[in-house]
Amino acid sequence: MSKLIFEKHSLNHASWLPALKKSEEELLRKIPGRFVRGAAPGLPEVSELDVVRHFTNLSQKNFCVDANFYPLGSCTMKYNPKALDAIASSTSFSQIHPYQDEDEIQGALKILYEMQLYLSEITGMDEFTLQPAAGAHGEFCGLLITSACHKLNGNKKTKVLIPDSAHGTNPASAALCGYEVVQVATNPKGLVDVEDLKKKLSDDVACLMMTNPNTLGLFEQDILEIARLVHKAGGLLYYDGANMNALLGISRPGDMGFDIVHLNLHKTFAVPHGSGGPGSGPVGVKKDLIRFLPAPRILKEEDKYLFEKTAPHSIGKLRSFFGNFGAIIRSYAYIKALGREGLRGVSENAILNANYLKARLKDIFEVPYGGTCMHEFVMSAKAQKKRGVRALDIAKRLLDFRVYAPTIYFPLVVEEALMVEPTETESKETLDEFVTILLEINREIHENPQTVLDAPHTTPVGRIDEVTAARRPNLRYKRELKQEAGNKKQEVVIVK
Ligand SMILES: *Cc1c(COP(=O)(O)O)cnc(C)c1O
Q1: pLDDT digit string (tens) for 212-245?
Q2: Residues near ligand 1 with C-beta < 6 Å?
Q3: How many angstroms separate the alpha carbon of residue 262 from the centre of ligand 1?
Q4: At 452, is the secondary structure helix, strand, or coil?
Q5: Which CATH homologous superfamily contains domain 347-465?
């Protein structure tokens, strides 16, 4: 087990910095007494070299897309071109402040304004807001717009329909906005069951939230009929576009009849988003809903970009300033660099890679909803379970082969689900290597299942009791005040 940086605390460290010209006392006299602390802050004292080694070694214990293949690419992490980080770090972006006058940040406002136009064009919507900070936040925004729209029209609607294959944030967002969630069934082809939808549609339905392609990676072929049915019942159609990886430049939710969409810039476009942030979940709407968008909107009048001054029907402000600016800049640069043809190429390659892997893996794992998939597909470890090995064990064993664990047990409609999305940037060699690894694991399941059940064997932390780890975390250190020789009383950390 590695030591904590606190355990490496030592006063015998070497510093290469020259001694201060003034004494500590002299400097302290210049600081008003109320700002001077009574005891040292309790930070570990470690030499620079030891600090560098400590954090470099820690970083190498982790998986990252720069070192490892991620079988559920865009949802967890797909490759984000490094040039985009360089662009976003430019001082032209990093050293401006949202409180500056409109006149001083015209360039930034222009980018935000153009980004709204690009996203509208990509999705077939009429107007976008860039405020929401992630996908779930975008859903929340879209449902507030839904609610504001129905309220203004004097309609009391209480229900939101959601297919049973939907991402968990969909029902959570609907519940957060005060709606009753009603599930719509999936048919044997893995698509929304239109007959079940008809039964559940009524005057009470505020909207149907859909993901297309759905989380099984299948395109909802009845989408035009579904849109007609929902609109006829007086409801809105909401598009969960967290993952647009399959549609860029090919088809548009706006053309399919969707009224509101959210996108995850951090999944489809280019934003590294490991460990929960930072994301960006812009929301687009059709013409009739523009007035409800979060305020203030960014407008263009002649050559000047400015904030809308009044917005009586707006749902209000959802996030400080303009959303996650750094995330938006990266995605803006990605869209600009790729252009219309390049974006289409992203989706075509994502679809090709997913279908290649599916074709190669379908003899090892059952793929319950077959047919051509879009950017992802879901396999089942049902057959492996009969031999006592579950999807969880396979995901853990993959770590030993330096492959990140795919999403498992989602969507819920597939037993022992293993979700695979290779993304557009992975080479055929990497995909073939992944197949070889899964073949090897499958051989182990037949010949020596215990190896898989005990995995991972080579990671810094082996199989852990996840429930106990979450419920009763063992925080290994405790702080105490201690007198050190020749020093002021100092807070040090005692490791238990
Ligand atoms: C990831 C995802 C979300 C949620 O997005 P966050 O940015 O994680 O809040 C919603 N729907 C689908 C289909 C997703 O894949």
Answers
A1: 999 999 999 999 999 999 999 999 999 999 989 9
A2: 75, 134-136, 167, 169, 211, 215, 240, 242-243, 264, 279, 281
A3: 10
A4: helix
A5: Aspartate Aminotransferase, domain 1 (3.90.1150.10)
